[in-house]
Amino acid sequence: HNEYLGHCLQPQISLSIIPMSCNKDNDWQHFKWASEDQIVNMGTKRCLAVTSRTSLAPLTLSPCNKTSELQRWVCKNETLLALRDENLFLQPGSGWKDNVILSQTISTKSVWTVYGTRNGLCSKGYEALFTLEGNSFGAPCVFPFKYLGKWHAKCIRDGDTNAQLWCGTTADVDEDSLTGYCPVDVDQDDSFWTKNHWTGDLYQINPNSALTWHQARKSCQQQNAKLLSIKELHEQTYLIGLTSHLDTDFWIGLNNFDVDSGWEWTGNQPFRYLNWAPGSPSPESEKICGLMQSNSGRWVNNKCDEKFGYICKKDNSSVDVPVIPTDGLKPIKCLDGWVAYAGHCYLLNRNLKTWKNALLYCRKAGGDLISMHNIEEYSFVISQLGYNPTDLLWIGLNDQKTEMYFEWSDGTPVSFTKWQRGEPTHVTNVQEDCVIMSGENGYWSDNFCDEELGYICKSKPLLSVLDEPEPVDPTCPKGWKRHGFYCYFIGETTKTFSEAKTFCEATKGFLTSVEDRYEQAYLTSLIGLRSERYFWIGFSDVEQPGTFNWTNGEKSLFSHWNSEMPGQRPGCVAMRTGTAAGLWDVVDCKEKAAFLCKQWAEGVTPPPVPPVTVPPPCLDGWTPSPTRNVCFKNFNEKYLKKTWFEARDFCREIGGDLASIHNEEERRAVAGYGDDFWIGLNTLDPEKGLAWTDGSPVTMYSCNSLFSFADYLFKTIEDGWIAYKSNEYYFSNITVPAEKAQEICRKHGGRLTVIENDDERRFLWKYNTFYGKQHDSYIGLIVGLDGKFAWLDRSPVTYTAWAPDEPNFTNDDENCVVLYSGTGLWNDINCGSLNGFICERHNRSAALPVAPTSPEPLGGCADGWLLFNNKCFQIFGLHEEDRKNWSDARADCKSREGNLATIPSKAVQAFLTVHIRSIPSGPWIGLNAIASWGRFLWTDGSGVYYTNWDKRLPSFSVRHFYCVQSKQITAFSTFSFATDAILSYSGTTISASGYTRYGNSSYSLVSPKMSWDESRKRCKSEKSELASIVDPYVQSFLWLLVLKYNEPAWIGLTSNLTNEKYKWISNRRLVYTNWAAEEPKENIACVYLDLDGHWKTGTCDEKYFSICIIPTEFPEAPGVCPGSKEHHSPWISFRAHCYSFYSILESWPQASCIFLSSTEQTPKHATSTVAIILVLLTLAAAGVGGYVFYRRRRGQPQTLGGFDNSLYNKDRVVIPQKDPESLANNNEERLTSFRGNPS
């Protein structure tokens, strides 16, 4: 049924499909799921299909074919139907009688429901119908199936001698002859059932079926029955008589799905009789389902996905007598110290007694040891009697009369049990015949009866005061009930969720939250026996679709979902009563139900907040959660692949558990692992909902929360823009920094979007989730100069939608805002982070031209600041006392109206390299990973377009905060400004006069273009030589010179004069290199410095500019060398240094020690130079040691290029990272080997 048109789908004779007036009696309008992805029409017995996988393809019907991609459908939510693996949705054509088609867009016309109900089309999915008897081993029916040449889409009676319903288990019964009887849920139909005339119970034995445990359970449910549970000795004997002649084992309802409790029966049947086979249950964690052996009737455990026969059972409900009186909710009076509940009185006594003496005490008091008969009574005991997890308390359950057959001491029937894991024990000759409750959950275990423990008594009330009104607690309002620190109110008048929430808040309370299992137990005991079906609690995903939160803002610490919950429907949470008492269901918030209010009791002092403890850092290889004190690690090695159970056991063995995920940040964090991997989410217990193995609450569901997206009407226009209401939007399919995002938006006549209300936010979020790349997306909100958020278009900020605990201004550099893809809420973030973005422009048929920008105002740098690329730089902290850590350095830069330097390109890197040559160690720059684990960002929010990491950096082997550089010394500061300075020239001639001093030499870029030999002659004519580049500082200086004039230039490196070995003509040793990729290409060539900063080879007669160098003589420095001391060679002065020569033979470390000892004993000298020890090996004394040393040196490779602020070390080769802005830099990581002397 289409809600928008008010019509139903109906095929035509041509098999095209159009909307028609609805008629429940018309089979041609009836459809059902025939498999997980096929839909069959009941009238034509054909499957829903399309003619092609394209937009506007018409809907039709065709013969069912499981392999056809044109018949495969998928539910995007309860109301949206799409072609599988495509974003093509079922939608009526433009007119109400037009064909139904596929459409790329969704709107209110895309909503499909089941006619006559509020249920969506996809609320009734496919359910396999498992056959009985026949020849198909219990295989499910296949619809449609062909019999006698006719197609059938439901079970038929044709051809069966007993007129029983049957079906085919393949599509062609005429050919395959595979059939089986269909299960029916009519209680009066006793076909296939055997009746126990002593009890009235019915049993169905299926020895020829081969189903898994869960399939067997489903087959029983389809017949309004349950998998077999055995509660009595005589029942076991009866079943042995039915099965002993059969040669198979049978699934029964025995299971151990709850990791915290022991074995139990399906349907909440009590586990009071044990009949395990020897050695069972075995300890394997995957064997959590129970089988009955046919020959002995004994029980064994096995993997649930193995296939066996099974036994179903229909209980005779007439023999079930409720133990709790029907007037159990009326107030009663008990003896002093006893607590009343549901028509009985209870006493918890911690005086130590044996089980027998405890029983005598309770009976003398007019009662008995406690018996518990349902989840409500059990919940009352652990929540309202003062039970402590450390208690060991006798209860009335025991097997003293008959071993392994447990009974209550008060003679009441056993209808409820709650065993601990591994209990009750059944070891031969171990007399653990009496039962205690203990532990955090209050579960049960058998124990030696003679041990002295506490106990719980239960008695009938004092009948003479049965009608006395219930006492009122003075700390709670009238009509409220006190429990712990809170008062609770049962709202009996049904209301919608919103109305109930308003009512509770009007009473200075709130819809109840549930903090832990004990509060849940109290609430279960409070409402479980009531006649109302549902009670609202304050849990919903209304505010944050897809994530459930408490309406009072409390953190979610506990969940208690019912079967198949929370599902994929948004809504509000209500607590069940009856057989599912206390479990949570997700219900339409507009439904009316009773409700529970909660408020602080008057005068109660809340418990103190526990102190915050700093968790230990994560171990190596583990990643910290961005929001919790837990660590994640993905074990993805092939040899570590495991089943889910094996993975859970492995995680627990190393002290952890399978991962649980509780917010979008964690989901993105673990999604980064890439591979498929197990997590702790499971539905092991089919009678309960989703649960995490670590016991944490389930608050998120996997759906994208787009259930109401069809309410948004939009249309697609040109160039990927969409129109919604008065605006047009563009959703990026790439991730970029914020500055690039804004630049792209402007090029298209728009800007980053401004979000003015919740409707607009939800539309953008849902469209991005449904059609976009699901990136977090930049919006147009930024932090202004006043420290407050403002829209880029300067409109007032009248609406915000921050995620919890946001904005937090982490690291004081989160100045931009993204819209989370997972929740649609906002988060402040560093503007340099890579994210998607959303552009916005007002409705128009085409993008407006970009408005011309006004000319930049003139400007310049203040004294002491260096100008480059329209920015000013200055180095601070040159003196020891002025040096700072990274944070203080940044604060100092900001106080000067600047920031720590950003290096956006290789050219800026070169400029800064030139100016740090004389600095003792590298200065701080603005790059850091303080707020973005694993991602370095610039603190001013610029994009990271260029990096120049050391070879082994960055490293994230341990959990630290990272800043760059890694020493707390000087700092670069920078600020932007507008200037008229032109730093790049395109002229082709340069004056030959004038050299620029850098370091100990002077350099000149000489024109015009000449060959290499001509260039060398030109340099020699000026008493200079073609330049040698001996370190990255000179490299950077000369490259900037080349960039300034935009011309390559010859340098003094050649193989033309040196026997095909590249050498400097100055005879300087070739230690530092900066070859381009695949260079040097020629054996005989000359070398030039190109515009990309790399060295390249060319024929020596090519024409380029030249770089000449005039080396500067070392001046004699003031001061004298240290005097000669005993055992020391004399010091010799030369130029600006002192030297000492030793003729003794030592290893390099020993020679270093000689140097250290000499310097330690030398007093401070007037000279400002640093004494350098040059250890020489004399020819006469070198001997074998010198020869070996020489051979080792000869065998080692030459040191190659890379930037490092340290001295050059042949064991430490540093490779610059690729520059993403320049294709010319893509090959900087290539290492080139050279032939030649090691000298």
TrEMBL record:
<feature type="domain" description="C-type lectin">
    <location>
        <begin position="627"/>
        <end position="698"/>
    </location>
</feature>
<keyword id="KW-0254">Endocytosis</keyword>
<feature type="disulfide bond">
    <location>
        <begin position="141"/>
        <end position="167"/>
    </location>
</feature>
<feature type="domain" description="Fibronectin type-II">
    <location>
        <begin position="136"/>
        <end position="184"/>
    </location>
</feature>
<protein>
    <recommendedName>
        <fullName>Mannose receptor C-type 1</fullName>
    </recommendedName>
</protein>
<dbReference type="InterPro" id="IPR001304">
    <property type="entry name" value="C-type_lectin-like"/>
</dbReference>
<feature type="transmembrane region" description="Helical">
    <location>
        <begin position="1170"/>
        <end position="1190"/>
    </location>
</feature>
<keyword id="KW-0812">Transmembrane</keyword>
<dbReference type="InterPro" id="IPR016187">
    <property type="entry name" value="CTDL_fold"/>
</dbReference>
<keyword id="KW-0472">Membrane</keyword>
<keyword id="KW-0964">Secreted</keyword>
<keyword id="KW-0732">Signal</keyword>
<feature type="disulfide bond">
    <location>
        <begin position="155"/>
        <end position="182"/>
    </location>
</feature>
<dbReference type="InterPro" id="IPR016186">
    <property type="entry name" value="C-type_lectin-like/link_sf"/>
</dbReference>
<dbReference type="Pfam" id="PF00059">
    <property type="entry name" value="Lectin_C"/>
</dbReference>
<feature type="domain" description="C-type lectin">
    <location>
        <begin position="483"/>
        <end position="598"/>
    </location>
</feature>
<keyword id="KW-0675">Receptor</keyword>
<dbReference type="GO" id="GO:0006897">
    <property type="term" value="P:endocytosis"/>
</dbReference>
<feature type="domain" description="C-type lectin">
    <location>
        <begin position="724"/>
        <end position="840"/>
    </location>
</feature>
<feature type="region of interest" description="Disordered">
    <location>
        <begin position="1219"/>
        <end position="1239"/>
    </location>
</feature>
<feature type="domain" description="C-type lectin">
    <location>
        <begin position="998"/>
        <end position="1109"/>
    </location>
</feature>
<dbReference type="InterPro" id="IPR035992">
    <property type="entry name" value="Ricin_B-like_lectins"/>
</dbReference>
<dbReference type="InterPro" id="IPR000562">
    <property type="entry name" value="FN_type2_dom"/>
</dbReference>
<keyword id="KW-0325">Glycoprotein</keyword>
<feature type="domain" description="C-type lectin">
    <location>
        <begin position="341"/>
        <end position="458"/>
    </location>
</feature>
<dbReference type="GO" id="GO:0005576">
    <property type="term" value="C:extracellular region"/>
</dbReference>
<dbReference type="Pfam" id="PF00040">
    <property type="entry name" value="fn2"/>
</dbReference>
<keyword id="KW-1015">Disulfide bond</keyword>
<dbReference type="InterPro" id="IPR036943">
    <property type="entry name" value="FN_type2_sf"/>
</dbReference>
<keyword id="KW-1133">Transmembrane helix</keyword>
<dbReference type="Pfam" id="PF24562">
    <property type="entry name" value="CysR_MRC2_N"/>
</dbReference>
<feature type="domain" description="C-type lectin">
    <location>
        <begin position="868"/>
        <end position="964"/>
    </location>
</feature>
<dbReference type="InterPro" id="IPR050111">
    <property type="entry name" value="C-type_lectin/snaclec_domain"/>
</dbReference>
<dbReference type="GO" id="GO:0016020">
    <property type="term" value="C:membrane"/>
</dbReference>
<keyword id="KW-0677">Repeat</keyword>
<dbReference type="InterPro" id="IPR018378">
    <property type="entry name" value="C-type_lectin_CS"/>
</dbReference>
<dbReference type="InterPro" id="IPR000772">
    <property type="entry name" value="Ricin_B_lectin"/>
</dbReference>
<feature type="compositionally biased region" description="Basic and acidic residues">
    <location>
        <begin position="1219"/>
        <end position="1232"/>
    </location>
</feature>
<feature type="domain" description="C-type lectin">
    <location>
        <begin position="198"/>
        <end position="313"/>
    </location>
</feature>
